[in-house]
Amino acid sequence: MTFNLIDINTWERKPYFEHFLNHTRCTFSMTANIDITRLLAKTREMNIKFYPVFIYMVTKVVNCQVEFRTCLDEEGRLGFWDQMIPSYTIFHNENKTFSTIWTAYEVNFYSFYKNYQQDMKLYGNVKEISAKKQTPKNAIPISCIPWTSFTGFNLNIFNDGTFLLPIITGGKYFNQGDKLFLPISIQVHHAVCDGYHASQFFDKLQRLADECEEWL
Asked: pLDDT tens, position by position, for the chain (216 residues)?
């Protein structure tokens, strides 16, 4: 994938980027409940695993918004990727550890699902922190905590504070009345994302869930 450099001097976000990166280095997280009533029923009807559906939806929304593809490259240059791929966690019930696997993204869900199934077959039982090596630079971190219906989730990365890509975490879905909801948290860097962009992330996820018959 291509990494497109941003000319910060002509970038309309320059003052916000410099403020939240250089003066008040800041990340924030937001959690919302997505109505998956129709989506979950559809996955069960199609006999499809829900986790890869969740991974696909998150990756699709990330690829719709340049703010979620903006980061610094290895040389510290600002830019954005043409497309992101998912790097997701899987749980090993035998020893209660997890591994990360990345899968090539496809716009067509069933093409992506095929890639996911192949990766799970090859790497699903590899009990290492990185089950599939050579993770591409344009990978987006996605994880799931399916044991808890959390109302908030926050990650604390103790580095130099320049990791600009979002980190997305799903929780345990729960009943509320006659509907099913999935808590999802997104952590972003304020240098490239504001509350508006985080809100758009959830709006687009909900729209995908509502329109699942069109792509599943």
From this structure: 899 999 999 999 999 999 999 999 999 999 999 999 999 999 999 999 999 999 999 999 999 999 999 999 999 999 999 999 999 999 999 999 999 999 999 999 999 999 999 999 999 999 999 999 999 999 999 999 999 999 999 988 877 889 999 999 999 999 999 999 999 999 999 999 999 999 999 999 999 999 999 999
- Rg of the chain in Å (alpha carbons): 17
Q: Which element (helix H / strand E) includes 21?
A: none
Q: Are 103 and 84 in contact (CB under 8 A)?
A: no
The conformation of residue 113, written as its DSSP 8-state character, comes to H
Active site residues: 190
Q: In which element (H, E) is residue 167 found?
A: strand 167-170
